[in-house]
Amino acid sequence: MNIGTPQSMNTILDASRYIEGLASDGFFGTCELIFERGRVVLVRTTHTLKPQELAGRENRGASNGNQPTR
Q1: How far lies 42's CA from each of 10, 20, 26, in Å?
Q2: Which of 17, 25, 55, 63 has a CA positioned 20 to 30 A from the CA of residue 11?
Q3: What's the rounded Cα separation, in Å, for the pair 48 and 36?
Q4: Which of the two residues, 40 and 64, has the higher pLDDT score?
Q5: At residue 54, does pLDDT exceed 70?
Q6: Is the residue at 33 inside a domain?
Q7: 31: how many CB neighbours lie within 10 A of its CB?
Q8: What's the number of domains the chain is made of?
Q9: Helices (DSSP H) in the chain: which residue ranges?
């Protein structure tokens, strides 16, 4: 992702840019921003994997071309 880091976020404008970056990168999940006195104090993102993405991740681990055992 080319969205910067949550540590560089302080203002609502920074938060808006961060969210725009998530959207342009095709982020799938949730993003929680907590503000205190107009400043971002907590950013929490949870990436959600779709079932077809999980299957792709499991197959990447098999070095001999066989499907992984379950």
Answers
A1: 10, 17, 22
A2: 25
A3: 27
A4: 40
A5: yes
A6: yes
A7: 16
A8: 1
A9: 12-24, 51-60
Look at residue 68 and tell me if it is in a domain.
no
Q: Are 68 and 62 in contact (CB under 8 A)?
A: yes
Judge whether 12 lies within some domain.
Answer: yes
Domain of residue 15: give its range.
Answer: 6-60
Q: What is the rounded average pLDDT of the residues 43-53?
A: 86
Locate 39 and state its tokens.
């400043």
Phi, psi dihedrals of residue 36, rounded to the nearest 5° = -135, 125
Residue 26 has which token pair? 């095709």
* Cα 32 from Cα 25, distance rounded (Å): 17
> Global pTM?
0.59
Residue entry with tokens 């999940």: 29
Q: In degrees, to the nearest 5, what angle opens at C-alpha 45 toward C-alphas 56 and 13?
A: 130
Query: Predicted confidence band at 32 (pLDDT cuts at 50, 70, 90)?
Result: very high
